[in-house]
């Protein structure tokens, strides 16, 4: 299996996904009850992670351990404490967090990602940078 789509209304964790050693892409919709993302960090082949409606994704610490991640999309995921953990994702080319709110407001940490080619987010009053500052970043993950 290279691509995995999960409609996760009743899941609380992703246990077992780490066994899919050739997994390239994971999309999780309506993962509102998932609070444990630790097993996804063990999928070292993962390049694309799309999360929608994962309201209990409070921290990006587990996601920041996916070494080859190139595309990270987490939309409508409530409030995430900080983007700072993703500065460890040296392969990240695209990030989007649309309706997800970044609690500490530090968006400028994205500039530390040297190969970042694309970013999408909604402007918020407490953010230290605006979407317009990412104008050169027009790449989308495929």
Short summary:
It contains no helices and eight strands. It is mostly beta strands and 142 residues long. It starts with a strand and ends in a 21-residue tail after the last strand.
What does this protein look like?
The protein is mainly β and 142 residues long. The protein has a 6-stranded parallel beta sheet with strand order 1-2-3-4-6-8, with no helix packed on it. Strands 5-7 form a two-stranded parallel sheet. The chain is built from no helices and 8 strands.
Intertermini distance: 18 Å
The overall pLDDT average reads: 92
What's the shape? globular
What's the total number of strands? 8
Low-confidence stretches: none
Strand count, sense and closure of the main sheet?
6 strands, parallel
> What structural class do you assign from the helix and strand content?
mainly beta
Read across the widest sheet, the strand sequence of neighbours is 1-2-3-4-6-8
The Cα radius of gyration reads 14 Å
Strand content: 15-25%
Helical segment count: 0
Listing every helix as H and every strand as E from the N terminus to the C terminus, the arrangement reads: EEEEEEEE
Helix content: under 10%
């Amino acid at each position: 299996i290279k691509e995995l789509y999960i409609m996760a209304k009743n899941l609380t964790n992703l246990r077992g996904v780490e066994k899919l050693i050739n997994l390239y892409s994971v999309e999780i919709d309506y993962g509102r009850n998932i609070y444990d993302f630790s097993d996804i960090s063990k999928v070292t082949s993962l390049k694309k992670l799309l999360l929608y409606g994962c309201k209990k994704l409070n921290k990006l610490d587990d996601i920041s351990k996916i070494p080859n991640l190139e595309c990270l999309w987490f939309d409508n995921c409530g409030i995430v404490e900080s983007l700072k953990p993703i500065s460890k994702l040296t392969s990240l080319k695209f990030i989007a967090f649309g309706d997800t709110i970044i609690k500490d407001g530090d968006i400028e940490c994205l500039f530390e990602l040297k190969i970042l080619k694309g970013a999408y987010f909604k402007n918020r009053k407490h953010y230290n940078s605006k979407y317009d500052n990412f104008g050169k970043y027009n790449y989308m993950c495929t």
